[in-house]
Amino acid sequence: xxxxxxxxxxxxxxxxxxxxxxxxxxxxxxxxxxxxxxxxxxxxxxxxxxxxxxxxxxxxxxxxxxxxxxxxxxxxxxxxxxxxxxxxxxxxxxxxxxxxxxxxxxxxxxxxxxxxxxxxxxxxxxxxxxxxxxxxxxxxxxxxxxxxxxxxxxxxxxxxxxxxxxxxxxxxxxxxxxxxxxxxxxxxxxxxxxxxxxxxxxxxx
Length: 205
Hints:
Blueprint lengths: L1 E2 L2 H11 L3 H5 L6 E9 L5 E3 L7 E3 L1 E9 L4 E3 L2 E3 H10 L22 E4 L2 E4 L2 H17 L11 H12 L7 H16 L1 H4 L7 H6 L1
Parallel strand pairs: 1-6
Antiparallel strand pairs: 2-5, 3-4, 5-6, 5-7, 8-9
């Protein structure tokens, strides 16, 4: 499966993103899933696929849209308000928001998730590593107007720990995340802008 080219993306925007009815019709032509629902850092904005490439602030929803015939995938992003209308019209569920500013899985300081029927244990280090992954993700898209989906080890580790919040983390998970963080700090997008030197700099920011 290949990622859509800029020309294909612009054509997709013209044909399927210029108004609400066009956006809702996407599902009639492509296989569609909700890729992610993410909160942006304060002051950060990205470009929407909606008409005029409007800036999105606060939070965004990314879809995975697959052209099966041409084996091409698109990752359009929309504001939360626009995306909710699309998701509701398609009878899909809105995923949990990935945010560094709210409790992951409603985890309490005692490492529990509260339900009407009782509580479920949550591993505290599991929650901490997921929060670190979201920090790394925030750094990686800080100066990107059109973000790609989270992929590779970050996605694999986050989704496994999110699915099994009671599961203890493995040492190689931490090593993988730290390696990716190091590469992100060395990336030109960082060194030519904020030039964070370590995780403490990012947290202060």
